[in-house]
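ARCHIVE CARD
Drawer: 12
Card no.: 0347
Subject: one protein chain, sequence and derived structure
Cross-reference: see card 0346
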Amino acid sequence: MPQVNIHPDFKLQQHSFTAIADLLQYVKTNLNENYDFLKELFSTKTTISVSTSGSTGKPKIIALSKQAMLYSAEATGDFFTLPPKTRALHCLSSDYIAGKMMWVRAIHLGWHLEVVNPDSNPLVQTKANFNFAAMVPLQVQNSLVDLHRIQKLIIGGAAISYSLEQELRNIETTCYQTYGMTETITHIAVKKLATNTKEHYKCLSNVSISIDKRDCLQINVPLLIDEVIHTNDLVNLVAPNEFEWLGRFDNVINSGGIKLFPEQIEAKLSATISLPFMIGAVPDENLGEKLVLLIESEKVLDLIDTNLAKSDLSKYEYPKEIYFLPVFIRTKNEKINRKATLSLLQ
């Protein structure tokens, strides 16, 4: 018998299903790109094969416990108060864990799910209103005029720019940035966005956190995974279940003895640079590492220096050099591959 069963309140595209075979046939006919995952989800296997994103290394296939996926779904439902009959929008690819978990939450918790194509502007495909949805920042940016139709929205998969967060202040939707990874079965912590006070990531239930000697986050979620997860994310522990994310340990730049966090500098610059860009470092005889700005552009732009002057950068955070590259190297899920892109400067 399969480990996952259909909640009696579950609906898909306004259709109810009591038999797994009927649901699978409907998905195969109408939403075929999701069929392989759902077939595996309802199989007698105890695990699901999932590909990691590849944002911090080569993508790999890992096995996740179906029971752990159900626990994760319940934790999300409890944290955001999403009971049966919650109206949910699914607009993510089911190739990755975030898209897979929208299915698991809906089926297990009894949501009314509407599935649309996972393109860059998903809300144009539907006129409905929703209690809950998950999007990547690009989808949010392109959906701002319609975002009021979603009550609660989680945003993940990439960094949220300063300018986008400011725009979300004018939206009725309650928005959260998520922290998690494939190994933790999506988010284990969320941060409320567009508030008047500084918010930190707050952990979901049954999650305990600590830091190692590098000040990197360690995650313990016994219901999801047996061992402690050691990350390369530098954090400040604000409370036993609350943390401030500083950046990736492997991205930190040591310039003349000053530690600089590219992600924090990029957040400051996001309001003044409209093109794709990244902060990195190149070797320097005097400083050890020299902070540089890379901009994805076919041509050199004269106004960039003026824009940088308008940003809130400290004297140490100001780029020593600016490079223009016609194309950045990206991972399969469209994140900038920092190391590979920096290698183009050699």
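Annotation on reverse: The chain has a mean pLDDT of 92. The domain at 252-343 is CATH 3.30.300.30 (GMP Synthetase; Chain A, domain 3).
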